[in-house]
Design a protein that fits this description.
It is a single chain. The protein is an all-alpha fold. The protein has one domain: Farnesyl Diphosphate Synthase. The protein is 64% helix and 1% strand. It is built from 17 helices and 2 strands. It has a two-stranded antiparallel ribbon. A hairpin with a 2-residue loop joins strand 1 (132-133) and strand 2. The two termini are 29 Å apart.
C-alpha cells in the first residue's frame, strides 16, 4: 500500500531529532544509479501514463443499477490526487521487457481497482480507522460503512474480470494471463496484504518487518511482477522484479513514516502515549527515526541492485530506477492533488455532495 497505498501512519507525538533531518541526512545509494535516473524525466512519463490510466478507469466503471454502489466505487478509484503507482509500475515493467503498453493497461487498471478496494477496507473504523484519504473524506465517511464494504467487495472481482475481458489475446497468451491473475490473488489474500493487516491490528510491535512486507511490499511486488509476466519475463527476471517491487513498496512507506516524524513537534517516550484508538505500527514508532532512516537506505540499495540485471535493456530500465529515487526524495507532486471543494466540483453529482454535507462535519 503506501506509495501503493498512500496510507501514512501518523505519529503526531514523535520527536524528530534535528541531526536526522532528511534535508541534512540524505538516504544514500549508488551514485552511479542515482545519476542515471536523474537524466530521466519521470514526472512527464508518470503524468502521461496517469492520464491514460485515468481515462481507462473511468470507462471501466460506468454507473449502473444500483447506482450508489458504482458511485462509491468511482469515488475511491477515480479520486483526484491518486498517483496510480501500481499501474504505472506495471506498465513500466512490461515495457522494460519489450511488452506492448496496450497489453498492460487492463492489468494496470485491475491493480488500481484492487489497490482502491484495499484502501477502502483499510480505512474502516474496525481496521485503521482513518476518516480521510489524500486529504478527502474516506469512502465510509461519505457513503457509510455498509456501502464502503460493498464497494470494496465489488472492486476485487471487477479487477479480475477486467483483465480477462479486456487484455488483447493476440498480445498476451492465456497461460500468461492465468499467472497474472494468480499473482494478484496471492498478493491480496491471506498470505499477502490481508495477513499484514491482521498482524498490524493484532500482532506484537516486533512484527513490524512482516507487517510492512505484507501491507506495503506486496502491492509493489505484485505490480512489477505482473508487468513482467505480461511481457513473457523469464524466471530470473521475475525474481528480480519481485525483489525490486517489494523493496520500493516498503521504502515508500518507511520514508512516509520518517517525514511524518520530521513534521511533528512533540516528543514521545513510547508507543503507549499515542492517542487512544490510534491503530497501525510504523518503523519510527517501534524503533525510532535513526533505524528507520537506515532501513530506508538499505531498501533503496536493494531495489537498485535488483535492477542491475536489466541494464542490457538500456534506457527502458530508467523509469524503474527513477521510481526508487522518487520514493526517497519526492521530487514532484501532481497538479490535481486538490482539496475537498475541488473534488466536489470534479465529481459533479448533487446527491453525493448532499451526502457528504450531511455526514462530514464542517
Amino acid at each position: 500500500m503506501a506509495l501503493f497505498a498512500n496510507a501514512i501512519t501518523s505519529c503526531p507525538y514523535i520527536h524528530y531529532p534535528k541531526r536526522l533531518s532528511l534535508t541534512q541526512q540524505k538516504i544514500r545509494c549508488s551514485s552511479t544509479t542515482s545519476s542515471v535516473s536523474a537524466n530521466f524525466d519521470l514526472k512527464t512519463y508518470w503524468s502521461t501514463l496517469r492520464e491514460e490510466i485515468n481515462q481507462k478507469l473511468d470507462e471501466a466503471i460506468p454507473v449502473k443499477y444500483p447506482a450508489l454502489i458504482y458511485e462509491s466505487m468511482r469515488y475511491s478509484v477515480l479520486a483526484k490526487g491518486a498517483k496510480r503507482a501500481p499501474p504505472v509500475m506495471c506498465v513500466a515493467a512490461c515495457e522494460l521487457l519489450g511488452g506492448n503498453r496496450l497489453a498492460a493497461f487492463p492489468t494496470a487498471c485491475a491493480l488500481e481497482m484492487v489497490h482502491a478496494a484495499s484502501l477502502i477496507h483499510d480505512d474502516l473504523p474496525c481496521m485503521d480507522d482513518d476518516p480521510s484519504r489524500r486529504g478527502l473524506p474516506s469512502n465510509h465517511t461519505v457513503f457509510g460503512m455498509d456501502m464502503a464494504i460493498l464497494a470494496g467487495d465489488a472492486l476485487f472481482p471487477l479487477g479480475f474480470r477486467h483483465i480477462v475481458s479486456h487484455t488483447p489475446t493476440n498480445l498476451v497468451p492465456e497461460t500468461q494471463l492465468l499467472r497474472v491473475i494468480n499473482e494478484i490473488a496471492r498478493a491480496v489474500g491471506s498470505t499477502g496484504m490481508a495477513a499484514g493487516q491482521f498482524v498490524d491490528l493484532e500482532g506484537p510491535a516486533n512484527a513490524i518487518e512482516f507487517i510492512h512486507e505484507k501491507k506495503y511490499g506486496e502491492m509493489g511486488e505484485c505490480s512489477a511482477v505482473c508487468g513482467g509476466l505480461l511481457a513473457g519475463a523469464n524466471d530470473d527476471e521475475i525474481q528480480r522484479l519481485r525483489t525490486y517491487g517489494r523493496a520500493v513498496g516498503i521504502l515508500y512507506q518507511v520514508v512516509d513514516d520518517v517525514l511524518e516524524a520530521k513534521s511533528s513537534k512533540t516528543n514521545i517516550a513510547d508507543d503507549e502515549k499515542q492517542p487512544e484508538g490510534k491503530k497501525g505500527k510504523s518503523y519510527v514508532g517501534v524503533y525510532g527515526v535513526e533505524k528507520a532512516v537506515k532501513v530506508a537506505e538499505d531498501l533503496k540499495a536493494e531495489a537498485k541492485k535488483a535492477l542491475e540485471g536489466f541494464e542490457k535493456y538500456g534506457d527502458k530500465v530508467l523509469p524503474l530506477y527513477s521510481f526508487v529515487d522518487y520514493a526517497t526524495d519526492r521530487g514532484f507532486s501532481f497538479a490535481d492533488q486538490i482539496g475537498r471543494v475541488g473534488l466536489f466540483i470534479w465529481y459533479g453529482s448533487k446527491r453525493i455532495i448532499n451526502q457528504i454535507s450531511s455526514r462530514v462535519p464542517n
